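quick one before i forget lol
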Amino acid sequence: MCGPEAFRLSKRTEIPTAPARGRGYAAEVRFFQAASGPAAMSQHSVSGAGALSGIRVLDLTSAVVGPYASKIMADHGADVIKVEAGEGDVIRWIAGPSPTPGMSGKFLHLNRGKRSIVLDLKRAEGREAAMRLVARTDVLLINMRPRAVKRLGLDYEDVARINPRLVYCAMVGFGPGPYRDTPAYDSIIQGGAGVAALAEMATGEPRYVPYVVADRTVGLMALNAVMMALFQRERTGAGQRIEVPMFENMAALVLSEHLYGATFDPPLSPPGDLRLIDPQARPVKTLDGYVCLTTNTDAQAFALMRVMGRPEMQTDPRFCTKQARAAHSSEYFGIRAQEMAKRTTAEWLALLKEADIPAMPYNTLDSLRADPQVRASGLLRAVDHPSEGRMWDLADPTQMSARGEPATRPAPRLGEHGAEILAEAGYAPEEIDALAAAGVLGAAAD
């Protein structure tokens, strides 16, 4: 048996005592104590308080855009309650193999530090439970289509009546307009917002960035908006509704990068930054591999010309200024490629470092994990997950001198904390049992 069927929800017959908020989690956090690298425990201890300690987040999102935003909030001490449907977040199932079905590596990385409850929001009892959670929530994250949100009674107007201090963040595919209720995924947004077209301009074929760049970018935008709304609430005492559309945000990023001379009316050139869409704007081939380098300033470009043995380029009208090199980027890149093919990667890295030219080795997914900077920073940490065993966790690389040490958890099994969460919301044990028996509340199978 494979897929969600192998990870059925079971009726809960024993209701555990709910621990006090922010306490009693030492056993669940113990898996972090096997971490390796200097950043291992400094950011994931059970002592101290993070910047978002005391903030409760009700996360009704799935896939990447919302869970990425709430993962960062959890990393900084927020109590994130992940509300899942019966089969759970789709990323549990479609993002690679795992020792336990429904616990993919990508899910583990995106949902660290959260608690999971399974609620059937199509049932009145499930919606009532969600509203009781909303009443004691600071931030509500949602990424359903507007029509579905309205059908479930989860519009901002509905929840603000219960909790006027709520910061409500809707991550949608599209803002008001003809696409409003169209379903959206990262690849749809990449194609529609012109990201895939940039690849066509550079290579002759449209293709998506093989990384969910729209989801991750818009997730950060949503997080940024939520933080501003929480800051404003500190001044006014009132919450607000935020809407973060994926399409418009990604279109704005692409256009701000590539309107280029078409920024002006009348246009001074076609759209498209020539330095970025040139087919040669890529890692540069050496005698035995590749090197990544960029020379934006005159000082950097002239240093490269000297290192390449082409000092005459410094007085060539095509290359002697930043503007000239931008206008003749294809010729400049061509000469660079020709000269750099004559030495090995190691030789070039040594020469470029000595000349203070921005450069680093080209990494594959395998070599990236062994990169000396990755190792020295403690980015990858060996940890033990309660259900998945030994795994590699990713530390938060951002350093804050007064960050504190927020309590956190391993990524949850589907529905793992349902009874605990409802008990905190005031449900009696017999009420929780009744919801489980009716199939409104799901729990992780043993």
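fyi The chain is about 40% helix and 15% strand.
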